[in-house]
Amino acid sequence: MPTAPTLVIPTSLLPADGRFGSGPSKVRAAQVAALATAGDPAAPVLGTSHRQPPVKDLVRRVRTGLADLFDLPDGYEVALGNGGSSAFWEVAAACLVERRAQHAVFGEFGGKFASATTRAPFLADPHVVQAAPGTVAHLERADDVDVYATPHNETSTGAMAPVRQVQDARADGALLLVDATSGAGALPVDVADTDVYYFGPQKVFAADGGLWLAVCSPAAVERAARVEATAGTATGRWVPEFLSLTTALANSRLDQTLNTPAVATLVLLAEQVEWLVTQGGLPWSSARCAESAGALYDWAGARDWASPFVADPDERSTVVATIDLDDAIDATQVVRVLRENGVLDVFPYRKLGRNQLRVGVFPAVEPDDVRALTACVDHVVEHLG
Ligand SMILES: *Cc1c(COP(=O)(O)O)cnc(C)c1O
């Protein structure tokens, strides 16, 4: 039996939709409706072969939609595969890093990619540029580095980094890999500045998890081909087929994946990509998310018991906002009371261990609902006593 809420938030204060998670994030009703009608009745999509035209058409919609959204530069291509961004770290370690990577680490996710290249027995230990949670680490040119890697938005802390080339790195032949799992589609970017801009579908793209998507430059495609060409030779490294970027690219060009994808995820993703393009693309979505995040930061700034966690306003994420609460207020209790009232998933990243609210303000979330959330938090804090 559901227990009665500790505290009832007046209906007039509640957001129309209470999903504020940082991933999986709010899925729009229209996307869910599209699941029911995906494909015409004569050519249904769900429950049919991923090797036949209806599902291939879905993959084509995702790839062309993303090409549109990111205004794909000449020669760049969109690849996809199963396993999420975590799998892509292994793909990158296996196929893109030749000898040594440099990682900007300023939170959990950047750190996880650094541990992937640390574990790879065929790579030299990576060079790690570290910064404290709540700040941003910046990549720096180094002679012996052939891949530079940074998160675009560190979802665990709510800090975002500008995407820009490391000085002279391209002339050195190095690649820039950007983990844009929670930023792609909602933060401004010129993908021409990157070699691989990769992400998953469960954050900005409001779908389920399980896929990785990667916008790849010609240099990245060429690097993978060269590294993988040594696979199987006496001196070459072992690249499992599941982790082969070259194989993923070959399948993607045919609007396929190496193995069976979650078709429902592709439906939700295709709908969201096309919705973002129709609404006005990256300029529209980044302005909308900045409005939502700005409402949270301004609200926190106007309370003496709340403050943005990220000190530098330029580094405050416009997609995942983190707000510290005064120690006198138990954030865990606030999060629980909100959940009892249908306002969901504003807990901080578990390993960050702060007395904090973390709010996903992806484009699917209405800015008015974010303002309603702040009123709900005010109400809870005032009445918890
Ligand atoms: C969520 C997230 C990931 C992990 O994505 P999975 O699809 O669960 O592997 C990686 N990087 C960032 C920046 C994220 O936000």
From TrEMBL:
Pathway: Amino-acid biosynthesis; L-serine biosynthesis; L-serine from 3-phospho-D-glycerate: step 2/3. GO terms for molecular function: alanine-glyoxylate transaminase activity; L-serine-pyruvate transaminase activity; O-phospho-L-serine:2-oxoglutarate aminotransferase activity. Catalyzes the reversible conversion of 3-phosphohydroxypyruvate to phosphoserine and of 3-hydroxy-2-oxo-4-phosphonooxybutanoate to phosphohydroxythreonine. It catalyses: 4-(phosphooxy)-L-threonine + 2-oxoglutarate = (R)-3-hydroxy-2-oxo-4-phosphooxybutanoate + L-glutamate; O-phospho-L-serine + 2-oxoglutarate = 3-phosphooxypyruvate + L-glutamate. This is phosphoserine transaminase. Residues 143-343 form the Aminotransferase class V domain. It comes from the Bacteria. Belongs to the class-V pyridoxal-phosphate-dependent aminotransferase family. SerC subfamily. Its cofactor is pyridoxal 5'-phosphate. Its EC number is 2.6.1.52. Keywords: Amino-acid biosynthesis, Aminotransferase, Cytoplasm, Pyridoxal phosphate, Pyridoxine biosynthesis, Serine biosynthesis, Transferase. GO terms for biological process: glycine biosynthetic process, by transamination of glyoxylate; L-serine biosynthetic process; pyridoxine biosynthetic process. It comes from Krasilnikoviella flava. It is an enzyme of class 2 (transferase).
